[in-house]
Write a structure and sequence with these properties.
EC 2.3.1.41; fatty acid metabolism; plastid; fatty acid biosynthesis; 13% strand; acyltransferase; Peroxisomal Thiolase, Chain A, domain 1
Amino acid sequence: MQSLLVPTAASAPVAAPRARRNLPMRLSVRASATAAAAPRRETDPKKRVVITGMGLVSVFGNDVDAYYDRLLAGESGIGPIDRFDASKFPTRFAGQIRGFSSEGYIDGKNDRRLDDCLRYCIVSGKKALEAAGIAHGSKPMEKIDKTRAGVLVGTGMGGLTVFSDGVQNLIEKGYRKITPFFIPYAITNMGSALLGMDIGFMGPNYSISTACATSNYCFYAAANHIRRGEADIMIAGGTEAAIIPIGVGGFVACRALSQRNDDPKTASRPWDKDRDGFVMGEGAGVLVMESLEHAIKRDAPIIAEYLGGAVNCDAYHMTDPRSDGLGVSSCIKQSLEDAGVAPEEVNYINAHATSTLAGDLAEVNAIKQVFKDPSGIKINATKSMIGHCLGAAGGLEAIATVKAITTGWVHPSINQFNPEEAVEFDTVPNVKKQHEVNVGGYQFQGTLIPPKQDFFLPLIFLCIAMQASQILLDLEVTILS
């Protein structure tokens, strides 16, 4: 166990209740001159943003603990596509969700109408609220000021099945056969809208669609609503359901997908010399974020704290990242400064790591520009097991990061057969490792425990670097603590 930091003028403690049993007290940071010299962190409990609940829909099911257990086991969720006939596609596999049930979360009539993108959003959002102790219809939920509670769940592709079916009906049967739900269920903000209407949240409600960085942008924007005093609590994250013919076909046309049809479970292999493209995934990952003051008042189960973030654009190319990683490295530096974290404090990174030829190394180059000594930093790739879930990727990987922080175990990057020498970092190849995280990033992830009397929180810090077109983002960065 590392020693706790001594309080400094830059991080003066504020009044807080005694630590509760459900707080992760195990984590701490190494006392050092470097840590003491870190930029100033937010101390106002009205502006400090904490995570109190997590919910997901994934290829490994809808339970957060079960999801992380299977990641720790190094299990691949990739397999042949059987949702449609993919026999004529050059890529015939994906991280397809099977056996999904919304029972207890969506009524049967609406469930039959909804695009999977919307179903995943509603289920993960309600499960996150349950974890936060404010389940829909419960007495604690009745005490929430709904006018100061919002929803910000984005998607990269929107209701793609509804859109595809509508176009097909138009071509084959005429406009009269287009469902009246075609437009509402295809647009990207409908997941947030339906969830907000269902639970009665009347605060900020919209979506952000920025390809693979969607979830991260939503976390960043949701936290800023809380910091500016516009909301007490936000549901934020991403959802995606694009494993349909037009979705797979579109990415095939971009030449972005792996074609390792003979062995799909090993197809997603970030940082491996033989990688040949990413593997499509789907699902949703959602966090409940609220002000520290609000969470304390309702005795919420605080899991982690959001420290800060930054967004930028590398203004380079529609799909290719800058080889020097400048857009990402500058965004990391900005977000570290905003979060009050020194680069030397970071010892864990959950990388974007899509298994693309250019993206994987460009991301590593960016990381090296900020974190000069790779020897103490572990990086891993969630996508090696669940595929690239596009707009939901950030949400699902944020949850994996928080679980790494609270359990002290980082999941492996599987399919590490012939690693790139240039990576240099410990990629946790093929087998999980025990690791007490200090500070790190989700798509940079990690943890930091600030001195605050006897009330300690793991911290989360977010950073996103976007490419100009926001189409095939291969360099997105987020830091969680």
